[in-house]
């Protein structure tokens, strides 16, 4: 599948109707999501025929992208049942098979490296300090091949240090810097939309 085709399909997905500010629910736009998954597959072979997990999947954009790129199986995890309903409808609409699980990522009781690849757009940690790190820590425990994740560029050094020192990463690499268009979703947002610089990371876990 070509990048433009993937981006076009993701652009038609339903997104949050009532986003929950405490969970930092922001949609992963089709531009970023398509490039993230396309890079994971075309540069590293980490999606097609692999078991892929999407942590904090929201309305399922990254999950659907993985399924469209022929992942062997895709599991989306999220704490919010309403988002998972939308994600299920999105998967049905595009006729892709995805398992969605309602759970708190930070309390995930998965044992060992049971998926090949984790993809995620975690909370940036602006509402709940350290939320981004909790997601990264959980992802690094279950992925055997790679973790792809978006983090604010301003946290780059902190992320790299923590991944290598605390989260069992063999390597931590910024693949590219992207502009994240943050639409005005919440009342406290003053401007119509804000551009945030985010890094697309690829972390490779050490094998246990």
List the helices and strands in order. HHEHEHEEHEHEE
Strand order of the largest sheet: 3-2-1-4-5-7-6
Kindly estimate the percentage of residues that lie in beta strands according to DSSP.
25-35%
Termini separation comes to: 34 Å
Give the uncertain stretches in residue-range form.
184-189
Oligomer: single chain
Mean pLDDT: 87
Radius of gyration of CA atoms, rounded to a whole number:
16 Å
Number of strands: 7
Largest sheet: 7 strands, mixed
* Structural class by sheet pairing and helices: alpha/beta
Which descriptor suits the 3D outline?
globular
| Helix count, DSSP H or I runs of 4 or more residues | 6
Assign a percent range to the helix content.
25-40%
Report on this model:
The protein has 208 residues and is of the alpha/beta class. Helices cover 31% and strands 28% of the residues. It has helices spanning 3-10, 30-42, 61-68, 81-93, 131-142, 156-166; strands at residues 51-55, 73-78, 99-102, 115-120, 143-152, 169-183, 193-205. It holds the Pfam family PrmA. Keywords: Coiled coil. Residues 84-111 form a coiled coil. This is Methyltransferase-like protein 5.
Question: Nutshell version of this structure?
Answer:
With 208 residues, this protein is an alpha/beta fold.
Secondary structure elements and their pairing?
Layout: H1 3-10, H2 30-42, E1 51-55, H3 61-68, E2 73-78, H4 81-93, E3 99-102, E4 115-120, H5 131-142, E5 143-152, H6 156-166, E6 169-183, E7 193-205
Parallel strand pairs: 1-2, 1-4, 2-3, 4-5
Antiparallel strand pairs: 5-7, 6-7
Helix pairs in contact: 1-2, 2-3
